[in-house]
Specification:
It is a single chain. The protein is built from 12 helices and 10 strands. The protein is an alpha/beta fold. It folds into 2 domains: 113 residues, no CATH class; 225 residues, Spore Coat Polysaccharide Biosynthesis Protein SpsA, Chain A. Helix 1 runs parallel beside helix 11, helix 9 crosses helix 12 and helix 10 runs antiparallel to helix 11. It is elongated. The N and C termini lie far apart (47 Å).
Length: 376
C-alpha cells in the first residue's frame, strides 16, 4: 500500500510537471505585439455592457475616452439597470459624440442573461473591429487600443488580452489575483500553441465578421455566462487568434470584496467549462486532477509512513515534492513579472493548495445549484 501510494503521487507529480513545462514554454517564448502608433486607420467600436454600474461608469469610462487612438466609438449598453446607469450614460453621450447608447428595457430582456444585451450592442456598432471590456474596468494605459489594433491582421480576427485585478490588502485579494494569474497562464499558453480555448470579457477583441460567421451567442444563449470564453472556444482556430501580453494592453478591475461574492462569481465561471470543446475539457481536467491527486497521495503517503516508516520512500516523496515546488516557483516568478502581479510568491503554497480546495468545493456545489442571474 505504501509503495502504491508513493508511485501514484509520483505519477500525478510528473503529469503536473508536464503542464508547468508547457506553461513555461509560453512564458519564456511569448511574442510581444509591436505598436504601430497613431497611424493606424482601422476604426474600433468599444462595447461596455453595464447593469447597475452607475458608480463604476463614472470612474472608468473617462479612461476609455482618453485613449490615444484616432478613430473609435464607445457603445454603452444599459442592461435593464435599476439605478441611474442610463442617466450616467446619457451624460457621457451629451459630452462626447463618440458615445452611443443601447438601452435594453425589462420587457426586452426575455433571454435572461448578458448575451442578449451584448448582441444588441454589437448590432449597434458601426465598425467591424470590436473591443469588449466591463464597466468596472479601466485600461492601464492610454495605448490600450493601439496595442489591440496592432494585434489584428488579415488572418488574426480574435485578440486575447489580460484583465488584472487591483492589488488590495487581505488574503481574499491575493487568492483572486492568484486565480486570475493561473487562469491567464493557462489560456495564453494554449493560445501560444495555437489551441486557444477562452478569453476574458474584461479585455477581449474580435471582428464583427467573426461574430456573425458563428451566429453570435446563439449556440450557448441558454447558458447564463460565457459571452467571452464560450464564444472564444467556439470561434477560435489555429490561425485566427492572437494574444497580447504587452503591459500597456492590460486592463484593471475592482475585485470582489467578500468571499461569498467571489465564490458566486467562480461558480458561474466554472459552470461554463463543461461546454468547452472535448480536448480542452480533458486537458484542463487533467491539470486539475494532477494537482488534486498529487496533494492527496502526498498526504496519504506521509500518514502511512507514520505506521510503516521507510527512509527511502520518505526521501523520494519529499525530493519529488521539492523539485516540483521549485519548478512551480520558477514559473510563477516569471509569470508575476510578465503580468505585473505582486505579493503572491511569499505565500505561493498556501495560494496553490487553497485554490485547489476552493475549486473542489465550488465544483461540488455546482452539482446542486446553478447561479440564476448574470454577474461580472
Amino acid at each position: 500500500m505504501l509503495n502504491l501510494s508513493l508511485w501514484l503521487f509520483v505519477g500525478f507529480a510528473l503529469i503536473n510537471l508536464f503542464f508547468y513545462a508547457f506553461f513555461a514554454g509560453f512564458l519564456w517564448r511569448r511574442k510581444l505585439i509591436k505598436p504601430i502608433g497613431k497611424t493606424l486607420t482601422q476604426p474600433f467600436s468599444v462595447i461596455v455592457c453595464a447593469k447597475n454600474e452607475a458608480k463604476n461608469l463614472k470612474e472608468n469610462i473617462p479612461f476609455i475616452l482618453s485613449q490615444d487612438y484616432p478613430n473609435f466609438e464607445l457603445i454603452l449598453v444599459n442592461d435593464s439597470s435599476k439605478d441611474n446607469t442610463l442617466e450616467v450614460m446619457e451624460e457621457f453621450a451629451k459630452a462626447d459624440s463618440r458615445v452611443k447608447i443601447v438601452n435594453v428595457l425589462p420587457n426586452e430582456h426575455f433571454w435572461g442573461n448578458k448575451k442578449y444585451a451584448l448582441t444588441l450592442g454589437i448590432k449597434k456598432a458601426k465598425n467591424d473591429f470590436l473591443v469588449f471590456t466591463d464597466a468596472d474596468c479601466q485600461p492601464e494605459s492610454n495605448l490600450w487600443l493601439q496595442y489591440l489594433a496592432a494585434a489584428f491582421s488579415p488572418k488574426k480576427q480574435l485578440v486575447l488580452g489580460y484583465g488584472k485585478y487591483q492589488m488590495q490588502k487581505g488574503l481574499l485579494n491575493r487568492f483572486i489575483r492568484f486565480e486570475t494569474l493561473l487562469t491567464a497562464i493557462q489560456y495564453f499558453a494554449y493560445a501560444h500553441y495555437k489551441s486557444a480555448y477562452m478569453g476574458v470579457g474584461r479585455n477581449l477583441a474580435y471582428t464583427a465578421k467573426l461574430f456573425y460567421e458563428h451566429n453570435g451567442f446563439v449556440n450557448h444563449m441558454n447558458v447564463l455566462s460565457g459571452d467571452d470564453d464560450l464564444f472564444v472556444n467556439e470561434s477560435t482556430n489555429s490561425e485566427n487568434t492572437i494574444y497580447c501580453t504587452n503591459k500597456e494592453s492590460f486592463t484593471l478591475s475592482d475585485p470582489k470584496k467578500t468571499w461569498q461574492d467571489w465564490m458566486f462569481q467562480k461558480k458561474r465561471h466554472i459552470s461554463t467549462a463543461k461546454h468547452y470543446k472535448g480536448k480542452h475539457k480533458f486537458l484542463l481536467g487533467l491539470f486539475y486532477t494532477s494537482q488534486l491527486g498529487m496533494g492527496l497521495f502526498f498526504l496519504i503517503t506521509n500518514i502511512l509512513l507514520i505506521f510503516n516508516f521507510d527512509a527511502y520512500i520518505l526521501q523520494v516523496l519529499w525530493l519529488v515534492m521539492l523539485v516540483r515546488y521549485l519548478v512551480v516557483l520558477l514559473v510563477f516568478a516569471k509569470a508575476t513579472r510578465v503580468f505585473d502581479e505582486k505579493r503572491l510568491l511569499p505565500i505561493l503554497p498556501l495560494l496553490e493548495w487553497g485554490l485547489v480546495t476552493i475549486q473542489m468545493l465550488i465544483f461540488v456545489s455546482n452539482q446542486n445549484k446553478k447561479p440564476t442571474t448574470w454577474a461580472r
